């Protein structure tokens, strides 16, 4: 890095003495050390060395109104003056649920957790409890958080992935019983996926689908693939579980509203917490009744000390109310602008590349291959190096995106910010080009 990182380096040295690898969250780790944030306001972050950056990461897509939005802050301040956490129910969970159930036709009932990982876990447990079946199916290379079953085959590589997707551990030590209960299909490869699924029809509780999976390139699910999944589920009594932890920011009714799809269950998180830890499951009332404790022990018991905590619920309700149709259209328009301009930057720099995404989400790749499934989007070592080089250039020139090249728009950035980002991408690409030429 060319920007100052002295204080971050000092903090990292301290962190290494009390945290494994000095880290608590792999997604914010970078070598030689993470950059430590000091403060943030709106679209701007200031790090501990005083360097300012425009935030196009938004805590990995969750801060849809940027940092410390006044509308959210006011609601949270009032809540902080009232109570923060309590061993009782509060009205705030009803308020957020009313907003979400009104916006999403498939949300007949809601249930809250503290993260997207937990939301996916509870949705899977609900599907098992409702169907009485043990197995789930998921797509290769898709990230659904850190629940054992959801993690399977999320990061296979050409060295180990074989001819077609199969159930492979992500964390060392994953029990064989977990692997035996996860069927892995290729995303967007309709015929292959259907063939693999058909051997397991009556054993499956649910199929987990992220309609625009970031880990698999931020490529949209094809209509024929989704139609096959929906028909397969109907025919075999399998529940369709959408993971909209990221894609819920694509429309007021989530990606399912944009795609015109009606999953039985949906896991959401990120934006709905207004900047606080959150997760939720929304879905069909009969399926969600597995959580219902009113008639004795539920089929899927679910406790959680901080479930539906009133600070998160209040922040989430304020953030969701502020996310009007106009504002949603605005961030989606700026997302389109970013995708178009960054793709043009690749052309102008003469570097092969493409930009994927939808709505307010975008991701650049140093490949012009046709992207379908995870394998087709898998970056080579050379491409990974270029993604890292461009991400580093952007960090050095005032922008925060994911190190994978994923960015997203909040309601507090403007066209001029997107234009500056695209110009900086072009300058970064030209620098990469110059360095490549010099190395030859
Ligand atoms: C698609 C998807 N599902 C689940 C998760 C897990 O959410 P959390 O990080 O809140 O546990 C993530 C996190 O980025 C995600 O992108």
Descriptive report:
With 440 residues, the chain is of the alpha/beta class. The chain folds into two domains: 6-64 and 325-439, Alpha-Beta Complex (Aspartate Aminotransferase, domain 1); 70-322, Type I PLP-dependent aspartate aminotransferase-like (Major domain) (Aspartate Aminotransferase, domain 2), CATH 3.40.640. The chain is 41% helix and 14% strand. It has 16 helices and 14 strands. It has helices spanning 6-15, 58-61, 70-82, 91-103, 116-131, 148-151, 176-180, 190-198, 223-236, 254-259, 285-288, 310-322, 325-349, 374-377, 381-396, 415-439; strands at residues 37-41, 44-47, 52-55, 109-113, 135-139, 182-185, 204-209, 239-243, 265-269, 279-283, 354-358, 361-365, 399-400, 406-408. Helix 10 links the parallel strand 8 (239-243) and strand 9 (265-269). Helix 3 runs antiparallel to helix 12 and helix 13 (325-349) packs parallel to helix 16 (415-439). The two termini are 23 Å apart. The mean pLDDT is 97. Pyridoxal-5'-phosphate binds at residues 60, 115-117, 120, 143-145, 210, 214, 243, 245-246, 269, 279.
What's the quick description here?
This protein has 440 residues and is of the alpha/beta class. The chain has helices at 6-15, 58-61, 70-82, 91-103, 116-131, 148-151, 176-180, 190-198, 223-236, 254-259, 285-288, 310-322, 325-349, 374-377, 381-396, 415-439, and strands at 37-41, 44-47, 52-55, 109-113, 135-139, 182-185, 204-209, 239-243, 265-269, 279-283, 354-358, 361-365, 399-400, 406-408.
């Amino acid at each position: 890095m060319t920007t100052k990182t002295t204080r971050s380096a000092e903090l990292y040295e301290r962190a290494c003495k009390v945290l494994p690898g000095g880290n608590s969250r792999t997604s914010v780790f970078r070598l030689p050390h993470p950059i430590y944030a000091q403060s943030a306001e709106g679209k701007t972050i200031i790090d501990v060395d005083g360097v300012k950056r425009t935030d196009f990461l938004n805590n990995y897509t969750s801060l849809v109104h940027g940092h410390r939005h006044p509308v959210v802050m006011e609601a949270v301040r009032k809540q902080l003056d009232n109570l923060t956490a309590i061993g009782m129910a509060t009205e705030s969970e009803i308020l957020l649920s009313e907003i979400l159930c009104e916006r999403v036709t498939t949300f007949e009932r809601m249930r809250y957790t503290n993260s997207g990982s937990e939301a996916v876990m509870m949705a899977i447990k609900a599907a098992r409890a409702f169907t009485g079946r043990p197995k789930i199916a998921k797509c290769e290379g898709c990230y659904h958080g850190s629940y054992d079953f959801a993690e399977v085959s999320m990061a296979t590589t050409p060295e180990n992935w074989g001819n077609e997707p199969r159930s492979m551990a992500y964390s060392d030590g994953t029990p064989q019983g977990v692997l035996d209960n996860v069927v892995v299909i290729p995303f967007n490869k309709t015929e292959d996926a259907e063939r693999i699924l058909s051997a397991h029809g009556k054993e499956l509780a649910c199929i987990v689908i992220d309609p625009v999976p970031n880990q698999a390139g931020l490529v949209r699910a094809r209509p024929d693939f989704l139609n096959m999944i929906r028909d397969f589920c109907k025919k075999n009594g399998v529940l369709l579980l959408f993971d909209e932890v990221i894609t819920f920011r694509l429309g007021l009714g989530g990606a399912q509203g944009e795609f015109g799809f009606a999953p039985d269950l949906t896991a959401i998180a990120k934006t709905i917490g207004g900047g606080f830890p959150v997760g939720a499951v929304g879905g069909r009332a009969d399926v969600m009744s597995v959580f219902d404790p009113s008639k004795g022990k539920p089929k899927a018991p679910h406790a959680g000390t901080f479930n539906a905590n009133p600070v998160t619920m209040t922040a989430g309700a304020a953030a969701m109310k502020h996310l009007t149709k106009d504002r949603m259209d605005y961030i989606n328009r700026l997302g389109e602008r970013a995708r178009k301009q960054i793709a043009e930057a690749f052309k102008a720099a003469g570097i092969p590349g493409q930009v994927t995404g939808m709505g307010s989400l975008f991701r650049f790749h140093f490949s012009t291959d046709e992207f379908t499934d995870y394998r087709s989007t898998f970056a080579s070592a050379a491409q990974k190096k270029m993604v890292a080089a461009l991400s580093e250039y952007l960090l050095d020139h005032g922008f925060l995106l994911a190190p994978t090249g994923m960015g997203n728009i909040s309601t507090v950035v403007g066209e001029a910010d997107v234009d500056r980002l695209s110009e900086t991408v072009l300058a970064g690409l030209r620098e990469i080009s110059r360095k490549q030429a010099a190395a030859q």
